[in-house]
Amino acid sequence: GAVVSQHPSRVICKSGTSVKIECRSLDFQATTMFWYRQFPKKSLMLMATSNEGSKATYEQGVEKDKFLINHASLTLSTLTVTSAHPEDSSFYICSATLLRSHNEQFFGPGTRLTVL
Amino acid sequence: AQSVTQLDSQVPVFEEAPVELRCNYSSSVSVYLFWYVQYPNQGLQLLLKYLSGSTLVKGINGFEAEFNKSQTSFHLRKPSVHISDTAEYFCAVETGTASKLTFGTGTRLQVTL
């Protein structure tokens, strides 16, 4: 149980285009979902916290107009990278917290974004 | 604000040897501590966590960690490693505020024959 999926696993796009990444909790309802960004050989940087039906809370330094987060249901959150540039290339990972499971985040497999 | 320090960026070790991956944290409040493992191009998998109670925590794949409040440490140990343990290991801390995690910079465990 407690499986989180992400789609796509890998995406390559042209500079200036927008890319949408989906994060789904497959077998549970997630109260909260998180979006992280990971640079090569670096740690995970929290970008934003997403709660179903409300606006995402962004971390300091993260552009909310560039990284649009929508949390439409208790099982789905999306991250849209708008007007992508090469510096947005990164590994994006989502996680979800399970109702009744104190403090544990379940992580998706990640999405590798490459902007040409 | 809390922070996590993993001093060793890489730890090479021979198969069947013991290993310790170090983690120190700083926080002014009570913390919850986690170790995650990441295999190449994959997300993170929880190895173990400390929330309260016994300071020695056992996790999956034979790993264990000990919470030491006086030294603000949560070092990860395994008595005998396997080639398949080769991965990136992340220590993380949560203070209970909205379940937000702060990660260390990771330690690359490289197990060789």
Write the layout of secondary structure elements.
The complex is a heterodimer of chains A (116) and B (113).
Chain A: E1 4-7, E2 10-13, E3 19-25, E4 30-38, E5 44-51, E6 57-58, E7 67-73, E8 76-81, E9 90-98, E10 105-107, E11 111-115
Chain B: E1 3-5, E2 10-14, E3 19-21, E4 24-26, E5 32-38, E6 44-50, E7 56-58, E8 64-68, E9 73-78, E10 87-94, E11 101-103, E12 107-112
Parallel strand pairs in B: 2-12
Antiparallel strand pairs in B: 1-4, 3-9, 5-6, 5-10, 7-8, 8-9, 10-11, 10-12
Describe this structure in words.
The complex is a heterodimer of chains A (116) and B (113). By secondary structure, chain A is mainly β. Chain A contains no helices and eleven strands. In chain A, the strands form two sheets. In chain A, strands 2, 4, 5, 6, 9, 10 and 11 form a seven-stranded mixed beta sheet that branches. In chain A, strands 1-3-8-7 form a four-stranded antiparallel beta sheet, with no helix packed on it. In chain A, a hairpin with a 5-residue loop joins strand 4 and strand 5. Chain A is globular and about 40 Å long. The termini of chain A are far apart. Chain B has no helices and twelve strands. In chain B, strands 2, 5, 6, 10, 11 and 12 form a six-stranded mixed beta sheet that branches. In chain B, strands 3-9-8-7 form a four-stranded antiparallel beta sheet, with no helix packed on it. Chain B has a two-stranded antiparallel sheet with strand order 1-4. In chain B, strand 5 and strand 6 form a beta hairpin. Chain B starts with a strand and ends with a strand. In chain B, 35% of the residues are buried.
Relevant terms:
heterodimer, A: about 120 residues, mainly beta, seven-stranded mixed sheet, four-stranded antiparallel sheet, 11 strands, globular, B: about 110 residues, six-stranded mixed sheet, about 50% strand
